[in-house]
Each structure stands twice: as C-alpha cells, then as structure tokens.
Amino acid sequence: MTDHADRLSTWHLELSIVADAIFHVLQDIEEPEGASAVAWVLRSRLADLVESCPFPEAAP
Fold first, then answer.
1. What is the average pLDDT across 21-47?
2. Is there a domain that residue 3 lies in?
C-alpha cells in the first residue's frame, strides 16, 4: 500500500470509530426532541461519509 493509501485507511478507521462513538452517545438522547432529531441526522450523515470515503484505485 502506498503512503497515501495507508493514511487514508487510518483516517477512515478513525472516522468510523467516531461514528460508532456518536451512535452510542445518541442512544441516550431522548429530550429535547429537536436535539435528538438533529443528532440522528448528523450521525446518519457521518455514517454516509464513512461509507463514501474515496479510496484510490489499486495500482496494477
């Protein structure tokens, strides 16, 4: 793996860890309803970012 790919892989792993941590924190949020809704939108968007992380194509 190239240095760029290693760094990108590490970034993706750390971003995924943050997304999981946010998920666990959000499980305890119930009130106010607006804060809970916004938090879940943010968590969903963060998960989308983790999944769409642009890894470079493999070298031939």
1. 75
2. no
